[in-house]
Amino acid sequence: xxxxxxxxxxxxxxxxxxxxxxxxxxxxxxxxxxxxxxxxxxxxxxxxxxxxxxxxxxxxxxxxxxxxxxxxxxxxxxxxxxxxxxxxxxxxxxxxxxxxxxxxxxxxxxxxxxxxxxxxxxxxxxxxxxxxxxxxxxxxxxxxxxxxxxxxxxxxxxxxxxxxxxxxxxxxxxxxxxxxxxxxxxxxxxxxxxxxxxxxxxxxxxxxxxxxxxxxxxxxxxxxxxxxxxxxxxxxxxxxxxxxxxxxxxxxxxxxxxxxxxxxxxxxxxxxxxxxxxxxxxxxxxxxxxxxxxxxxxxxxxxxxxxxxxxxxxxxxxxxxxxxxxxxxxxxxxxxxxxxxxxxxxxxxxxxxxxxxxxxxxxxxxxxxxxxxxxxxxxxxxxxxxxxxxxxxxxxxxxxxxxxxxxxxxxxxxxxxxxxxxxxxxxxxxxxxxxxxxxxxxxxxxxxxxxxxxxxxxxxxxxxxxxxxxxxxxxxxxxxxxxxxxxxxxxxxxxxxxxxxxxxxxxxxxxxxxxxxxxxxxxxxxxxxxxxxxxxxxxxxxxxxxxxxxxxxxxxxxxxxxxxxxxxxxxxxxxxxxxxxxxxxxxxxxxxxxxxxxxxxxxxxxxxxxxxxxx
Length: 615
Known about the structure:
By secondary structure, the protein is an alpha+beta fold.
């Protein structure tokens, strides 16, 4: 697993530098000769350039090359020039630069590449992993953040993606960290959403080219690429784009044990029309049951994630894909978040085009069974984001609040088994956020669309890490900044109206993906497999209830948690609430078993030479 830290160009405390050097297999230096970037990464994971006293590095999956960055760097004189010089780069990546003593570091706007900051022995250090900084500082877990991770469905801005440790700050997606020569630092926006002005036809063309570039970037000569082929539009589109780019492709289709399941039929239809692929199909009977492996401990991710249900299944699939030569796996994750705007776009649309807004509102009301009251509130509410956050703090356990249409996005809801302490701590987080938070856009629908894209990006980063631990990293092209920007540029009333499923993606993939796959109107689920897994693993779940780390931390009620784990049918919050709780419980257990990150537990610098050249 790759990692890096950025340190200032000054004499560092010897203990700090020694701890980093002995665990870093790569070191890139400032012109002064002091270390700038320390970490571990493969050569293809970082492109670098130097022009006099100016340094530039792009880390991750990108179209950047050393020669290309050198040419771009020639026109950069100040930090203000930097993002314009980087325009057009495809992929998912971090950027780090040093321009005559001024440092600049940022992740991706989507949140798939995160950035964190901390003070370590009086020095500002930033890193791509919060666990790295927690290890350096000996930071304690933040129980309020643990309480927040119990919520369903996801956390609102600005709480989403906060670090799980005290003293470790998360830099918001879309912000960059500016490091000054005097040792101070501040975060400022580097990204702004594009105007949502493109008609569907024009925007679909831009999305197609953005996706085409994102997929082609992952297709390299003489390497086998794996891809999920679920039968849905998102993964199917990526498979056809990969085939177009000349990939040697191995696909994986899961045939869930669900009555009336249609996914595998559509997946087979697609596979029959993808030339030269190796198509693998896995039935429920061939795979481990859901929730297999509760007694096994794994390397913890950056934060809790709801991956426990499918972990054993995904490991089984990953092994089969690796056996056929795959070195990277493409996922359609993030497609729903990127190409379907939340219905709250109606609020702003009603002020620009009342007739269109009312017509589309009627469609949503019929399709999603909104009440008249909720429909009226969607159009007539006075938007105030801080007030919405404050109101959310008072409604963290309202069981039906997540089911109603919301202007600013889904309200986070704590499960019934969350303790009074958990409710108080989470409400305090929301109240604090309400005193200073500003929305991601003045238009509530725009804000909600950006936020759901960032939620997809956050999860994409966790999926990539989880896959890397299993030996096959997972990339989510729909979470690349260029792809999400292409979606945000389209008029939302054309990208997500209620009478067609994913009209933006369907238009983008027209002629490339067969029409029957683009006009599918059904979506399958794995409900029977989920319930069967919980029933099969009642004994280890009972043990978890008896020895719960969440209960020990004062965040869950033991009796109510036991009932939820052993009688999931009584859970009014549904699968998301239970899976988020299980993910947090598992994360705590894994963290206890692996307190030091695996990527920092060994000492590669003792085994191989350190690269100190900036090129």
